[in-house]
Amino acid sequence: MAHDRLFLIDPGFEVTGRDDGPFVCPFCNQIEGLLASFPQLSLDIEVVRVAFPRPRQEVVALVGEANQGLPLLILGDNSPGDARVRDGLHFVSDTERILELLAERHRFPRLLRPATGASKVA
Length: 122
What we know:
The relative contact order is 0.20. It contains 3 helices and 5 strands. 25% of the residues lie in helices and 19% in strands. It has a 5-stranded mixed beta sheet, sandwiched between helices.
């Protein structure tokens, strides 16, 4: 499998006009936690951390200005049918879907979800 590339916002960033930081992206941080918990599983994923401010030129150059929201997973090959495509690159930007794909493609544990008809998970 060709390497997947995962783009995340570099944690601990400041936001212009605010003095209550530093901050983390709540969506990217979910994925950061998974990567930190299972570092051996991320060896075949290229993880790229970019600065918070827009435009995020490295991302824009690949998938366009309209798709620079992060997290973003660019799929190396065997992309699922729900992936978006731009200039031949297949990508997913929904955090939940990225977590599912990390489990399917890279053997990360899945998030515990309620079983069908169940009201609680734990």
